[in-house]
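Dear Dr. H.,

I hope your travels went smoothly. While you were away I took the liberty of generating a structure for the chain from your last submission, since the lab meeting agenda had it listed for discussion. I wanted you to have the full record in hand beforehand rather than looking at slides cold. The sequence, exactly as received, is reproduced here:
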Amino acid sequence: MSNKLSRRRFLRQTSVLAVGLAAAACGGQATPTAAPKAPATAAPAAKAPAPTAAPAATVAPAAKAAEPTKAPAAAATGKYKESPMLADLVKAGKLPPVDQRLPKNPKVSNELPASQLAAAVGTYGGTMRLVTSVAPDWDADAFVMGNEPIINTPGILGLEVTPNVVEEFKSDDQKTFTFKLREGMKWSDGTPVTTEDVRFNFEDWMFNTEITPNIPTYFRAQNDTRNKPLTLEVVDDFTFKLIFDKPYGGFPLTIGIQGWRGYTEIMKPAHFLKQYHKKYADPAKLAKEMADAKVETWVQLITLKNANNWDLTRKKSINYPSLFPWLITDVTQQSLLFSRNPYYFKIDTAGQQLPYIDKMASQMVSDIEMVSMKHISGEVDFARESAVLVKMPLYRENEKKSNTRALMARTHVTYTDVFLNLTYKDPNWRKVTQDVKFRQALNLGIDRKEIIDAVYYGFAEPSTIIPSKYDPAAAQVMLDELGMKKGADGFRVGPDGKTFEIPFECGAQSADQLPVQELFVQFWNKLGIKTTMKRIDSNLWTQRQAANELQATSIWTHTPLFYMNDWGYGFWGRAWQTWWNSSGKEGEEPPADVKAFYEKGYSVSALAPAEAKLAFEECKKVMFDKIYYFIHIEKQMQPLLINAKLANVSESKDAFAIGSNFSGEQFFFKA
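The corresponding predicted structure, in token form, is as follows:
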């Protein structure tokens, strides 16, 4: 079937979606991933999956803090309600009453703005089924649903920043940020949360050079590696201040959404981790723990025992004290199982403790085709990360049979950005790829229309961040001028006199990566640049990328979200980014133009919203000229599959698909 015919067929089958969407189309997939592995067993739940439109993402931090979230009137009387499964445990004496488990001022969920979701008061029960093919201990949908930042931005828009784990926060000068914890909030094991957990995180973890040799850049003034780190001031059991010596207007969004950070960056369960810290633990017990864990140092031990937000789907988080809505209870090669947190700190407007859904079960399957079979057979209740546009006709055809709804939403990334690693160790490679004229020539050889028609069925647009002109003849002239003459086999040679080759290695973290990459191979081979592609295991891909061993690859970046400062630094210049992040202690010093780009890019995180947006636009201008990597298309649309009975999922056309994940605690199954 030709591309044109397949596109017409897609548009016929998705006619309800097509109206008005092509113009509104926006981009992206989502979070980091690992490797594809084994099949999976699921747990029971209501019925099949069905996509919907989700919340959006775009802006930067509010300089001045939002007021504390007020609990509904019902809460003031102490008459909170809870899931029957927890009520039974209370009756059995295995849990304290719900009023004693919630903080004095619980958070009333506001993960989505009212314009994107008019949340209904839900009912309790059920198991929500998810599916993933990435790795035996990773599910991106489960991660985003579970992750809790210290403060949040509704709809991940960045238009405002509101309290979340903390009850309130404020800053009058963009240097001193004052936070107040929710009094009475408890870790999942029932231990009270206090500023001791914050003090431990900074004094005993972040500022302990044995555990943390390099303090994260975002904890330095203005998100600059050259500036001093913050200082902590503990005011009382529930109030603390994070203080910088220079204005840092972007700090609220930096800790509230950027990089999908969670509260684990700010606070850790001190009562649990002190057992493994040499400052607090009994030496004999610590030595035994190290021997049992088969590690040589206490730092290895405490790192092994610690679980950050990125670990919430992993085995190490079982029985680890946390604040997430669901807690992981079992990890196998076939599934991840989660159960509600009895001490979760959020309620709905009727005073019902969230989440509504009792359990989550993520099925682990072997490949993306098996994922699609799960989607259309009614075995999945929510799918965003694993839902792909090329399967949309299939989803639509099977909606009734699978009891699902297949919707379209905005994406928060550009899915299939293409990278040449300008710092790969080979000097011949560096000489060619670091020449901007070479990158400009390759860019002229990219046929965006073919990519958009063949892979995205028209639901994407040519990039405006880098030039989108298609002129292969001009590209050939530029390559000739660079001295890259063609050999007898038709392929061009590099400065060393040998055939110059671009060897793509891709992990297939999203379903459209490989078909797009295959087109790039065709485009650049036509220019006489020998280009090959190999799919590798995603775990191996991650290792090779971290070790600066990938020459060329494809992955997404969060270009639609200005506050993310995600310009793929580590993919097109791994050694340079390492130098920047380590303040020059590791990696290689970048050239002046790259340093200047870093300066501008990282300033976005340092600035208050209005200035940050301007800096972001300046970065786009640099990208347009330098083409550090190939953001070839933008504004892709993304399917969202949900069970037809799953309620409180946003269907706003202005919302990002991933925004729905952020409000997962409000999902419930209608009768």
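Two observations you may find useful: Residues 1-77 have pLDDT under 50 and may be disordered. The two ends are 43 Å apart (CA to CA).

With kind regards,
E. W.
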